[in-house]
Design goal:
4 strands, DDE-1 domain-containing protein, mainly beta, 4-stranded mixed beta sheet, 108 residues
């Protein structure tokens, strides 16, 4: 950082968190230890969203990004968004996760 004279306003930390839509809290399964369950512990038929947040070393932040699962955004997903008071980036990917192709969209 010192060698290249990188200033605090040019350093960012970003993190992402995925959420299964419709899963509000932790679930527990009870089963016999002699007969453990086979297969997935939860229904795989869930849509996913990913939230990406970023903060700058100077204390400022960038607007969050929400990635929905789909081939494009649907109006119903954004009906509660208030663009005049909420700055958020939205996009969609087939998996609902960040992919290399759309990562730079949030940085511009």
């Amino acid at each position: 950082i010192k060698e290249n004279d990188i200033q605090a306003h040019n350093m960012y930390n970003m993190d992402e968190k995925g959420f299964a839509i419709g899963v509000l809290n932790k679930a527990r399964r009870v089963f016999s230890s002699q007969n453990p369950p086979k297969g997935a512990s939860q229904d795989r038929n869930r849509a996913w969203i990913t939230v990406i947040a970023g903060i700058c070393a100077d204390g400022s932040s960038i607007p969050p990004a929400i990635i929905y699962q789909g081939l494009g955004l649907q109006d119903s997903w954004l009906e509660d968004w208030q663009p005049e008071s909420q700055e958020i980036y939205f996009t969609a990917t087939p998996t609902g996760c960040r992919v290399a192709n759309n990562s730079m969209e949030f940085n511009n």
